[in-house]
Amino acid sequence: MQSAYDVIIRPVVSERSYDLMEQGKYTFEVAKKAPKEEIAEAVEKLFNVHVVKVNTINVRGKAKRVRYQVGMTRSWKKAIVTLAPGEQIEIFATQQQADAE
């Protein structure tokens, strides 16, 4: 079992993730080998909320080119965490209010 900080790497900030927050769903980049149960426990421990459901997606790296050099961006794992109704993660809630103003 890893620590919660090893499981949750960073929140994913995008237009789609902000739209999902209105439905009580939060998006995180997580450790590649972390199972759904560990992700749920880590979010509950870090943010003091109740997790109802966890969906995971393995995001493949994209082919990128700089002049003649062809390479790949890194691949990573994304988790969309659904919280219990009426709960929210405060860090994101304050950013949403600031963006609305």
Short description:
The chain is of the alpha+beta class and 101 residues long. The chain is built from four helices and six strands; from the N terminus they run αβαβαββββα.
Mean pLDDT, to the nearest integer, reads 91
Low-confidence stretches: none
End-to-end separation: 41 Å
Widest sheet: strand ordering: 1-2-6-3
Largest sheet: 4 strands, antiparallel
Helical segment count: 4
CATH topology: Alpha-Beta Plaits
Strand/helix succession: HEHEHEEEEH
CATH architecture field: 2-Layer Sandwich
Count the beta strands: 6
Strand content: 25-35%
Family: Belongs to the universal ribosomal protein uL23 family.
Keywords: Ribonucleoprotein, Ribosomal protein, RNA-binding, rRNA-binding
GO cellular component, one term: ribonucleoprotein complex
Subunit structure: Part of the 50S ribosomal subunit. Contacts protein L29, and trigger factor when it is bound to the ribosome.
Q: What would you note in describing this structure?
A:
This protein is of the alpha+beta class and 101 residues long. It has a single domain (4-100), classed as Alpha-Beta Plaits (2-Layer Sandwich). Helices cover 34% and strands 35% of the residues. It has four helices and six strands; from the N terminus they run H-E-H-E-H-E-E-E-E-H. It has helices spanning 4-7, 15-21, 36-47, 90-100, and strands at residues 8-11, 25-30, 51-59, 63-66, 69-72, 76-83. The strands form two sheets. It has a four-stranded antiparallel β-sheet. Strands 4-5 form a two-stranded antiparallel sheet. This is Large ribosomal subunit protein uL23. GO terms for molecular function: rRNA binding; structural constituent of ribosome. Pfam families: Ribosomal_L23. Belongs to the universal ribosomal protein uL23 family.
